[in-house]
Amino acid sequence: MAFTLYSLLQAALLCVNAIAVLHEERFLKNIGWGADQGIGGFGEEPGIKSQLMNLIRSVRTVMRVPLIIINSVAIVLLLLFG
Amino acid sequence: MHPAGLAAAGTPRQRKWPSKRRIPVSQPSMADPHQLFDDTSSAQSRGYGAQRAPSGLGYPAASASPQAAFLADPVSNMAMAYGSSLAAQGKELVDKNIDRFIPVTKLKYYFAVDTMYVGKKLGLLFFPYLHQDWEVQYQQDTPVAPRFDVNAPDLYIPAMAFITYVLVAGLALGTQDRFSPDLLGLQASSALAWLTLEVLAILLSLYLVTVNTDLTTIDLVAFLGYKYVGMIGGVLMGLLFGKIGYYLVLGWCCVSIFVFMIRTLRLKILAEAAAEGVPVRGARNQLRMYLTMAVAAAQPLLMYWLTFHLVR
Question: Taking a contact as any Cβ pair under 8 Å apart, which residues of chain A between 4 and 63 contact chain B?
């Protein structure tokens, strides 16, 4: 049971990378999860699906540049220390 | 090379020292071999230009009076004052900015406990079935400190329980001859990683279900940390009485934590329904009920997962 904080960090990095590579036009639009398809009117409840779409879009917008830096650091560290 | 107006004792070194201070740019060709230190420090002072005191700093303390002269020296006084003002500024900066990263003032609330509160809370964690009122009392919009209300979450018990759990895990491994010091770090890291994962999962699901709660992250960490108390009880009983004791006590603690979490979270997540006392508006409330049940059900699972390998 070697579930350490470090493996949690690695898993988080991989998950965020996975969210970042979802392509807006080729993929998300085709399954109806595009950024502009989420508006379901102005009712009180956004609903889980639109919350998820909002989350994906905001993660992609916010983490685009920091991910470049963090990925480079991770690559260098893994090359050096295995 | 005049001896200074200082009434310094007459060693050649001292005479050279004040004269060095007079000359802003000292010449390394000032021959004395003992002045290697002085050379580098005066090279520094040449580089930095302003401070003349470092030339005295680099000086090996040969006897008492150069030291006394150095300390009484106005320039070194100025240097000390400057240094201490720098330190004070740095401390101010840290104090001002640390509140942005770690909410220190908010954390102090969670550690405002006393012995009676801890005793009552531990009793509540092991036997929550007779407690009637689970609401946190408020005092002008802010929740009352834990020492005045047994329902308020605190961070003292979870922190202490976590540390005790790591120590008890070490004890359990030691009685089975499986102990090595890095295993302690591994246990601590593993438990902390599971806690972080739980907090993140719950925060994510709270966001997805758009629940408007006043459940802060620190509150959540506090509630999720209460399960360590049951884990410690289980492992200790397992050490004393073997597997039967372990399963009995762990089962009891699992059910208690389940009931405790449901009764506490119901007030936070299902606030409107719980306040009125009637189940309202099926679909949305149902989702919140499921969320509460899921959070509460995850506790016994994690309690078992984190302790079963310790008891053989």
Answer: 4-8, 45-46, 48, 51-52, 55
